[in-house]
Amino acid sequence: MEVVISSSAEQVDRLAADIVEHVVQSGPAVLGLATGSSPVGTYRELSRRHRENGLSFAQCRAFLLDEYIGVPRAAEQSYFAFIRDNFVDHVDLDGAAVYSPDGEADDIAREAQRYDAAIAEAGGADVQILGIGTDGHIGFNEPGSSLRSRTRVKTLTEQTRADNARFFDSPDEVPHHVLTQGLGTIGEARHLVLIATGESKADAVAAAVEGPLSAFCPASVIQWHPHVSVLLDDAAASALALADYYRYAYASKPRWQRL
Ligand SMILES: N[C@@H]1[C@@H](O)[C@H](O)[C@@H](COP(=O)(O)O)O[C@@H]1O
Asked: What are the Glucosamine/galactosamine-6-phosphate isomerase domain coordinates in residue numbering (predicted)?
């Protein structure tokens, strides 16, 4: 695992965009996309590179991490709409090649299995962007999630519902249930890129990076993965015991090893 601490959120966005650009330029790529505010700057930077430098996503396919159950795709609160509005509409990624779990499927359990299988059939994600919840969730894998779980229904904690209430007209409208890729599913992506900025994420980041590997902090599952980049600003890194070491290790990293 590589922990990179930047002095600004914009630098975090550029580093994440560098990783995605590298993957996209290496051939037809399968991108794992996260929603939430953490990766929005990365999507903005990738859109800029598309516009100004011709970075093309035309050969890519993309899979979302999760979706609310019962929120229609047409609604602006759906993650389907979020990724369209914040990324897909700004680049040349084919909308038909962007997949998300259908939170309105008649048979939700079957939809979960279908979605998991579709990711595997596509060969798995080459790079998976991740945010982190204040309770340590990734995707919507709340505390207690099996470290080998597959795509399935989860019940949101009250903390997560409160954190996400800003996207809804009233806190009561935040769904209680979601479909999310499991921790096992996410772990099959070839490169995990976890993005966190701001002090509100500091404790969750410290638990994920330096705490025990535990279902209590689902994001700690990244410790089990062979290729992880954790991209933080100073505030999100402020509770890390080894912050000085991570800074030194990155600053002294040979140029040829940069990605
Ligand atoms: N399901 C999403 C996660 O994928 C995201 O990482 C998290 C943090 O969101 P934010 O980046 O807005 O803090 O929120 C939601 O719960």
From this structure: 11-223
